[in-house]
């Protein structure tokens, strides 16, 4: 049976991920192994959703969005009403992306305004301003960005796999090369463990992965190489503000789902613009 053209890069990416199992397990590093296993599970879910078409991707987007929103709500201490608003958009946005995406784009500013204004009616005045900002941002970051899986569904597994390889390579390069002069520079106060070595290692892995699966373009490379670490930094800022290391503890090697999805959340809407 001949694979659809859009599934060929994803299939090649899966093969690459399986091949990477050799150096991953030979490293005997529990963190790298657990990250690799978790990414394989995430990529498998993405591949299944892609095979199922738009309906499968809508279901996956809702699942990811809702789980991340719950973790985010605990992280920034949203009240039940605020979290309910956020969860409502997490369910509605992927459905609208599949049925009325133009409507969603048109009315997104109004929805964001509602998300910012409604928490202000709370009797908890000291926290209402923060919750207003967090609710509106959560709608944009978790509900809308995740809903971009739907227009991207034909290329979803490709994007997930490239981000996976970028993430694992960035961590490995940071650990193995992070002590070298210049490469050990830590440019981000919000995430002091990130080094230039990690950023370069992740970018290099993104380029190699895209070339090997036959999907390299400068735009997509820059989106992944810059968007994945920046998304991780954004989540790190919220975690540092909350004084926690992870958003959860149920994903091996990652903590919570938001700890992993953060690398995807900035990549998804940008990749949806270049992968038609």
Short description:
With 276 residues, this protein is an all-alpha fold. The chain has helices at residues 7-19, 21-26, 30-52, 54-76, 80-99, 101-117, 125-147, 156-177, 196-212, 218-242, 257-265, 267-274.
Q: What features would you highlight for this structure?
A:
mainly alpha
Explain how this protein is built.
- With 276 residues, this protein is mainly α.
- The chain folds into two domains: 1-52 and 154-276, no CATH class; 58-151.
- Helices cover 75% and strands 0% of the residues.
- The chain has twelve helices and no strands.
- The chain has helices spanning 7-19, 21-26, 30-52, 54-76, 80-99, 101-117, 125-147, 156-177, 196-212, 218-242, 257-265, 267-274.
- It starts with 6 loop residues before the first helix and ends with a helix.
- The model has no long low-confidence stretch (mean pLDDT 87).
- Overall 3D form: globular
Query: Gyration radius, to the nearest Å?
Result: 19 Å
| SSE string | HHHHHHHHHHHH
Helix share bin:
over 70%
Task: Describe the SSE topology.
Blueprint: H1 7-19, H2 21-26, H3 30-52, H4 54-76, H5 80-99, H6 101-117, H7 125-147, H8 156-177, H9 196-212, H10 218-242, H11 257-265, H12 267-274
């Amino acid at each position: 049976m001949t694979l659809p053209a859009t599934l060929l890069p994803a299939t090649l990416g899966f093969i690459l991920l399986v091949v990477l199992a050799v150096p991953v397990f030979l490293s005997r590093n529990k963190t790298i192994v657990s990250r690799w296993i978790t990414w394989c599970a995430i990529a498998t879910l993405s591949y299944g959703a892609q095979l199922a078409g738009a309906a499968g991707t809508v279901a996956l987007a809702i699942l990811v969005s809702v789980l991340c929103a719950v973790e985010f709500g605990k992280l920034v201490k949203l009240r039940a009403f605020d979290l309910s608003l956020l969860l409502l958009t997490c369910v509605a946005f992927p459905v609208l992306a599949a049925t009325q995406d133009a409507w969603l784009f048109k009315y997104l500013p109004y929805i964001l305004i509602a998300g910012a204004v409604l928490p202000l009616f709370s009797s908890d005045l000291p926290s209402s301003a923060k919750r207003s900002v967090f609710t509106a941002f959560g709608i944009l970051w978790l509900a809308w960005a995740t809903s971009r899986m739907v227009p991207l569904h034909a290329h979803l597994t490709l994007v997930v796999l490239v981000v996976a390889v970028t993430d694992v390579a960035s961590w490995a390069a940071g650990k193995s090369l992070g002590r070298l002069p210049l490469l050990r520079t830590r440019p981000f106060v919000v995430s002091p463990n990130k080094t230039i070595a990690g950023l370069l290692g992740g970018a290099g892995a993104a380029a190699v992965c895209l070339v090997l699966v036959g999907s390299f373009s400068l735009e997509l490379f820059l989106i992944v190489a810059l968007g994945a670490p920046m998304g991780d930094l954004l989540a790190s800022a919220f975690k540092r503000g909350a004084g926690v290391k992870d958003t959860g503890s149920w994903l091996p090697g990652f903590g919570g789902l938001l700890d992993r999805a953060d690398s995807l959340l900035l990549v998804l809407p940008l990749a949806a613009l270049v992968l038609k």
